[in-house]
Amino acid sequence: MTTTRAATGMCFDRTFPASLVTEMARRLDEGGADQLWLIEDCFYTAGVSLAAAALSVTERLQVGLGILPAVARNPAVTAMEIATLCGLAPGRVLPGIGHGVQSWMEQMGALTPSPLTTLEEVIVAVTRLLAGESVTVDGRVVHLEDVRLDRPPAAPPPVLAGVRGPKSLAMAGRVAGGVVLAEPASPAYVRWALEQAGHPAPFHVAVFSPLCVTADRAEAHRIMSPWLAGQLAEPTAGLRVLPFFDDLVALDASRGVEGIAGMPDDWWAEIGPIGTLDDAAAHIGALEAAGVHSVGLFPAPDVDVARSQVDDVLALARR
C-alpha cells in the first residue's frame, strides 16, 4: 500500500455551542488545517446546519459530516442536503451516514428492525441520487418512486459509512465510498477494518482520534487515562483488536486509572495522538501507513481548552 499524506483537522464536539463553529472553522481554514468534522449526535447540534455555517465562512476547508443517522431523515432529503452543501462549496464536503445509536433511534420513534439493511439501502439510494440518477426502489426500509435531484453535484463526494463491527464494515466495502471510524481508531483497528471491508478501491478511510498534546508525555497520559478507562467499561471493536487488549483490561482491573496512566508508551502511541507533539505526529504517520486518508482530532470538551488546542491541530496539519 502506498502511503499518502492524510488530511488533518479537528472535530467539533457535540456539546459545543453552535455559535462556536464559525470561529473554529475560520481559524482552521486560515491556519492551514485541512478539515473540520461536525458531530451529529442526538440530541445535540445538527450536522447539516453546522456544515453550511462552516462552509460559508471558509475558502478551502473541507467539512465532514460525522455522522448522519440513516433513519433521521428520508434518504431523498439526506441527498438533497448533501447536494445543497456541495453546491455551496464544491469539492469541500465529506458526508458520513451511520446506524445511529439504537436507544436514541427508539426515543425518536425511528427504530428500525434491521439497522444493517437500513443503512445499506440508505447509502445506496443517497449515492445514486448524488450521482444524478432517477431512483425507484422498493426496499425493506427505503421506498422511492422516480426521485431525481434537480441539481446533483458535478463531482459527487464519496458517501462514507460510520460503522464499527465486521458485518457493517463488510457492507461498507460493498456499497459505500469509504468509512468513518470512531475513536479510538488505532492503526491496528484501521488495518482490521480494511480487511473486513475487503480492501475496496477507491475507499476513503476517515478516523477520529482523541487529541492531547503536552510538553511532558507522562502528563498527557495522566490526563487521558480516565477517558481510556471509560472506554474500557464498554469496549468497542476498535479497542478489542488492539494486540495488547487483554493485558490492558487486566491492568485496568488491577490498578485502575493509575495503572493505565503508567502503561507502556508504545501502547499509548498505538491508541492515539497522546503525548508530545512529536508523539502525536508519529501516531498520525502510523495511521497514514495503515491506509487512512482523513484524521479528525477530538479536542477536550471544555471550550476554552479546545480553543487552545487549535494550535496543536494546525501544527499537526502542517507537519
Notes on the structure:
- The chain has 319 residues and is α/β, with parallel strands linked by helices.
- It has a single domain, classed as TIM Barrel, CATH 3.20.20.30.
- The chain has helices at 20-31, 47-56, 75-88, 102-107, 115-130, 166-175, 187-197, 217-233, 237-240, 245-261, 265-271, 277-290, 303-317; strands at 7-12, 35-38, 62-69, 93-98, 135-138, 143-147, 160-162, 178-181, 204-210, 212-213, 274-275, 294-298.
- The strands form 3 sheets. Strands 1-2-3-4-7-8-9-12 form an 8-stranded parallel barrel, surrounded by 6 helices. A two-stranded antiparallel ribbon has the order 5-6.
- Helix 7 packs parallel to helix 12.
- The two termini are 21 Å apart.
- The mean pLDDT is 97.
Rg calculated over all Cα atoms: 19 Å
CATH topology: TIM Barrel
Strand order of the largest sheet: 1-2-3-4-7-8-9-12
Write the CATH homologous superfamily: Luciferase-like domain
Known CATH architecture: Alpha-Beta Barrel
**Average pLDDT, all residues:** 97
Name the helicity range: 40-55%
Q: Write down the secondary-structure element order.
A: EHEHEHEHHEEEHEHEEHHHHEHEH
Most strands sheet? 8 strands, parallel, barrel
* Sequence stretches where pLDDT stays below 50 over 5 or more residues: none
- As for the number of domains, it is 1
CATH class: Alpha Beta
Would you report the number of β strands? 12
How far the N terminus sits from the C terminus, by CA atoms, comes to 21 Å
Q: Roughly what fraction of the amino acids lie in strands?
A: 15-25%
